[in-house]
Structure formats: structure tokens, C-alpha cells
């Protein structure tokens, strides 16, 4: 067996093992719970509906191994490996197609596989590695045309894939720009076959018909039903996101050109955090190699890279100082295709150096250096196993299960924002846990417009919660059956009629006219009864720097104070109070949280847990946090 036949399969087997080893054991945070529930029930998640991902997810959910969450997470591993193989193939094909070329390609594969964001997206239930695979597949189509000459079959295949990208993630469709530029070089043949290309495009696009088909009859989970063309366009174009809709975001690339400065700065920051600035010289050499190889290829690949790096950053990531939320939601996810292209070009730069060794007679270096270079990216594995490994991350599951378990029979549970909501849907719809609870999701902190996905079938829950469905919320609060993750502030419509009190990890709503003495007795008894469900071990052992996991653990600290409060004693009257005074954020809104606690021998351990969880889950653990965030 020669070196190539050993290193190539060994590298891919190692990466597959590493990804499988690092998968979240039940579900990932963020969109994970929603995408798993939608895949399991063959439904439709948030706009644009992601019909291709959901259908693939349904197939994966039928695998005869692991739980439903892990099966759907395997989609990311599967398409990540396919993307990495395309990177290998492109580097090998565009370099010397010899042993050194294979080593350069393997090194770029490992470099990409172990980079922070690519690794992170390869182990969670998300659609970004699927999107990267489509982008790299389209680049391969264009490369074949350049190397082998115009082939209308490539044009038809690329048209079909372009249509397909619109059923996965819309940014995949941006490949129409570099493909259009490439078509200019072959404009006679390109135009001649354009009508038939439209046919292939719509064939790929037809996967979106799934949204109509699945909503003809009710299914387990649909975020926004598609019943006609208006509702289809609303979902497909993401109109409910306002300025974040697909059309408005695209238009923002052609205004305020000063924003390109921040786009470049922010993208360069991502390169530094993922690959270090030492990779840039290899990237520049790779660009030179492409130019020497083919001017058409140079223009095509560089245009692709610009579209998925600087231009995409202008659309989504051109703020002057991105905060931790923007770094996590945008910087950590959207640029995976550009990273794949970047590592491919870096691989070509490495091969360029090997060809220089040969040119000037450094034959020993030519043989030794390519093998050594393969091992350099492997050093990143130690970082990934301390910031991206999620094999012990039970937090999104145990946190939500703890909340559900703590609630009295037939309670209303109200969440706000994706994290709590999506995990709740997973437990309710996939896990079928606590079906006596009606889980509602508030869309806007300032309104009382909520979604009822966690109360299906509606006919059943209408019978269980006649007060709620008749709009009598005060009656529910007087029965101690209305709970929420939302602490109330004057911005919330309920602020004038109910008070919110800490209850385990969340809050209980109580009418302002209710008898507080009865509530105090209820609170004390209830906290002691549900104390065994307090799970702090998961927030001290999850090992990941996942922002949503850190947020959940910080949010859970309310529970430790609540339990400690229940163990105050009458004999504590002379003990000085410890005041917990902070603000809880809900998007753009904040609500006060204040509790006074007298610490005695019996409840002191809960204060120790509070401090330990706060310390372990500091938000500056996040790898992409800038210096400003680290100081905060």
C-alpha cells in the first residue's frame, strides 16, 4: 500500500469517527429541536420551510440506530463528509494529480474538517453542510466545463442543482452569479441551451411543492401553513422576517457600499479565528496557481469565493461591531461554503510550494514536507475537543425536561425565542412528554400573539384548557397553572394585570388581586417537592462553548435561587440578605429580576451551585467572541 492509499481513507475514517464521537447525545440547541420535530413528523419548520432538508431528515429518522435526534444530526455529518471529499477531489484535480497533490488535498481536507465553524456545523441538526455540498457540487460542474470544454450536460445538471438549492438554503442559489460569469465565456452554447436549462431548474425547484402537499392535511408540525400562492411566497421568500426577508437582504448588497469595509473586516476576523492568519500566504499562492492554471478558472473560482465571503458578509455581517449573538448566528454558520473554497485554494497554494521544490531540485523537501504538512492541521483537534465536542451536552434536553417535570398537571407553558421553544417542541411532539401541558410560543414580547404548535390536537387541548381558549387567563393564574420563561416588564401586555415570580427555572404568573399568602405556601411546598428535578451536573460537564447552551445554563440559575428561597427559615431573621439583582434579556427587551435571600446552613449549597454554574458558563468561552466580548 502506498502513502496515498493509506492517508486518504485513514483521514476520512478519522474525521467520520471524530464527528460521530462529538454528536450531541439527544438534540442540539437552536434550530435543532425544531428541525428534528419537523423531520420526524414530515412537517415544515420556519421559513423558508427547508423542504429538501425535512424530507432527507425523515429518511434519516428511520435509520435503525440511535434516537431520533441523533439520526437527524447525521445529515450534517453525511453532507460534511461529501463536501470534504469534493474539496479533496478539486484540489487533486486542479494540481498535479500526483502523490504531492494528494497530500496537499488531504491537508486541506483536515484543515477544513477541524476548523471551528465547519466542525461545529458538522455535528448539529442544521442545513449548512447540505448547503455547502451543493455549492461545491456547482463549483465542480463549472470546473469540469473549464477543464474539459463546454458540455451542455453540465449546464443542465448545474441548472437542476440551482433549483434544488432553493429547497435547502437560499444562499446556495447565489452560485448563479459565478455560473453566469462562466456562461459568458461560452455564451453561444450557453444561450442555445438556456430554455432547456430552465426546465431542469424548475425540476429541481419542484421540491418546494412539498410545502403545498404536506399542508393539504394537518401534520405533526408546521410553522406557517402554505395553502395558496400568497402563503407560499410568504414562506418561501421569508417575508415574515421583514428586513431579513430574502429579497430585502439581497437588495442590501447594492446600497451603502461603505458597508463592504466592515464586511471585509468581519470576514477576515472569521478567517483568523477559524484558520489563523498564517493560512493567508498559502491562500494567495493558491490564487496565483489558479491564475497560472486557467484564467477562466481563476475568474470562476474567485467569483464564487467573493460571493460567499465578502458579498455574503455585506448582506448579513457588515455591522461595525458584531455582538455575540451575531457572531454565533451569522458568523458561525453562514460562511461554511466560503471556508470550503478557502481551504481548497489553500491546498492549491501548498501544492504550488511543492512544485517550486521540484523546480529548484529540492527533491528531499518535496518528499518530506507534504507528509509533515498533513499533521499540522491535526493540532486543531485539541481545540475542537474542548470547544466543539458535544458528546456530553445533555443541557438542551435536560433543561427543558426539568421545566416540564416541574409543572403542575394541566399547566400552560409559554416560551419566547427559538431556543426554549424548539426544545419544547422536541419533547412534546417527538418525545410525547407531558402531553397534559399546553406549550405556547410568544412571537413578540410586546404582544399576546402566540403559536400553539405545542397544543395539538387543538380539540383535545381546548377541552383541557377551556379557560385559556376562552381568553380567561386570570382564572388560570389563580389556579397556579400559567408558567412562562418570560419575566414581565412594563413593555409586556400582561404587566398591568399579573405579577411574575421565579418558579424553578422559569416564572409563574399570578393575578395582581390574588391572595399572596396562599401563594407563599404553595411556593414553599412546590419548590421542596420539585427540588429532586434540579439538574446542575449537566451545566457543569457539557464541555462545549455553544452559546445557546451557555445561555440555557445561565438562565437555569434562577432555579437554584428559587429552591434556596424555599429553605429559608424563620430563625434566619437576623441574617443579612444577599440580593440577586439582574436583568433578563428577551431579544431587544429586558425585564428585571430581583430576589433577596437569607443564606443558612440548609440552603447554602444552592448558592454554591449558582456560583459554580455561573462561572462554568461564562459567555466569553465562545471561541468567536471578540476582545470586547471577552472584557464584558
UniProtKB/TrEMBL annotation:
A family per Pfam: TMEM260-like
UniProtKB keywords: Membrane, Transmembrane, Transmembrane helix
Transmembrane domains' residue ranges: 7-27, 68-91, 103-124, 130-150, 157-187, 193-213, 243-263, 275-291, 297-313, 334-354, 360-382
Superkingdom as given in the UniProt entry: Bacteria
Entries under InterPro entries matching the protein: GT117_domain-containing, TMEM260-like
PANTHER family named in the record: TRANSMEMBRANE PROTEIN 260
Name recorded for this polypeptide: DUF2723 domain-containing protein
